[in-house]
Amino acid sequence: MTDGNVAYEPRVSLETLETLGEGHIAYVKQIRSEDVPELFPQAPKIAPGLKLFALHAADGTPIMLTDSREAAIANAWSNELQAVSVH
């Protein structure tokens, strides 16, 4: 939005951003097997050096871990979530 030569940026609180897409959007992120214990402490030990894919809720909560992007997206769809990729 502009007023003359002054541009106004809308301000959104962190709390609002955290709830954006909640229950509707999930994101898929490629991770390394070395990152699994931090994100999924209940997961069994996984060999180092593997590329995996994590599905997260819009607020960042880890939902599931898989070895393929397609499986993560399929899981999102089966839970009626719109999947987006994060690079």
Structure overview:
This protein has helices at 14-19, 36-39, 69-78, and strands at residues 2-3, 6-7, 25-32, 51-57, 62-66, 82-86. The strands form 2 sheets. It has a 4-stranded mixed sheet, with helices on one face. Strands 1-2 form a two-stranded antiparallel ribbon. The longest helix has 10 residues, at 69-78. The model has no long low-confidence stretch (mean pLDDT 83). The protein has 87 residues and is α+β, with helices and mostly antiparallel strands. The two termini are 29 Å apart. A hairpin with a 2-residue loop joins strand 1 (2-3) and strand 2. It contains 3 helices and 6 strands; from the N terminus they run ββαβαββαβ.
Q: Output the helix-strand order.
A: EEHEHEEHE
Main sheet summary: 4 strands, mixed
Helix content: 10-25%
**How many H/I helical runs?**
3
Arrangement of strands in the largest sheet: 5-4-3-6
Q: Could you give the count of β-strands?
A: 6
Intertermini distance: 29 Å
Poorly predicted parts? none
Shape: elongated
Structural class: alpha+beta
Q: What do the pLDDT scores average to?
A: 83
